[in-house]
Specification:
The chain has helices at 50-60, 62-67, 80-87, 110-114, 166-182, 202-210; strands spanning 13-18, 22-28, 37-42, 70-76, 103-105, 121-124, 130-133, 141-146, 152-158, 184-185, 197-198. With 211 residues, it is of the alpha+beta class.
Length: 211
C-alpha cells in the first residue's frame, strides 16, 4: 500500500452508530473538517477478544481527546446491527456497552480498502469469478490521525493480534498540536511538557510555509 501521510484522508460516507444507540445513515468525516481533529481507528470484528479492550480504552480516554478537540471514530466491516448488538452487551460479558463515539459499518469493505488496511484483496479468477486472497476479509488494526484540514498526519497499522496503545495516540496528538502552535518539531520519546526542537533548514522551512 502507498502511505496516506500528507494526503487528503479518503472520503467516507457510510452508516454508523453514534452515542451508543443511534443509527446514522450518512455519516461522514467531512463534518469535522475545519472544526476538529479526527482519530479514525479500524478494528477487525465485533464480538472478539482484543477488540473490546481497545474500544473501551478509547472510551476511557475520550475526555482527554475531547479536551484536545479530537473526534474519535471507530470502524469495522460489521453491520450497524452488529454494532448495536455489541453496544448493548455488558462489558463483563465481552460487550462494549458505554462506548459513545461513532462506530462506522464498513459492510462493503471499501473504506478499509481505501485506507489500505483490508487484510487481503479481491481478485478475478480464471472464469471471472471474484476471489478473495491474502488473509481474512477484515480490517487490520489501522489508525489515522487527521488534522482539521482533512490531511493524514500520522498512521500506524498493527496485525490482528497486536493491540494498540491509546496513550501513544494521545502523545501523537500532542506532538502535532505542539508543532502547529509553536513550529517546533518533537524528538523521539517527546511528551507534552518536555522541550521540543527548533525547526531549521530549508526543507523544514518549506514545509512550515505550506502548513
Amino acid at each position: 500500500m502507498k502511505s496516506l501521510i500528507g494526503k487528503k484522508a479518503p472520503a467516507i460516507r457510510a452508516t454508523a452508530v453514534v452515542n451508543g444507540n443511534e443509527i446514522v445513515q450518512d455519516f461522514t468525516l467531512g463534518q469535522y473538517e475545519g472544526k476538529k481533529y479526527v482519530v479514525l481507528f479500524f478494528y477487525p470484528m465485533d464480538f472478539t477478544f482484543v477488540c473490546p479492550t481497545e474500544l473501551h480504552a478509547f472510551q476511557e480516554k475520550l475526555g482527554e481527546f475531547e479536551a484536545r478537540g479530537v473526534q474519535v471514530v471507530g470502524c469495522s466491516v460489521d453491520s450497524e446491527y452488529s454494532h448495536l448488538a455489541w453496544l448493548g452487551q455488558p462489558r463483563n460479558r465481552g460487550g462494549i456497552e458505554g462506548v459513545k463515539y461513532p462506530i462506522i459499518a464498513d459492510t462493503t469493505k471499501t473504506i478499509s480498502e481505501n485506507y489500505g488496511v483490508l487484510g487481503g484483496e479481491y481478485l478475478s479468477g480464471e472464469e471471472d469469478e471474484l476471489l478473495f486472497e491474502g488473509g481474512a476479509p477484515v480490517a487490520y488494526r489501522g489508525l489515522f490521525l487527521i488534522d482539521k484540514g482533512g490531511i493524514v498526519r500520522h498512521m500506524v497499522i498493527n496485525d490482528l493480534p497486536l493491540g494498540r496503545s491509546v496513550d501513544e495516540v494521545i502523545r501523537m496528538v500532542d506532538a502535532l498540536q505542539h508543532f502547529e502552535e509553536y513550529g517546533e518539531v518533537c524528538p523521539a520519546n517527546w511528551a507534552k511538557g518536555k522541550d521540543a526542537m527548533s525547526a531549521t533548514g530549508a526543507g523544514v522551512s518549506d514545509y512550515l510555509s505550506r502548513h
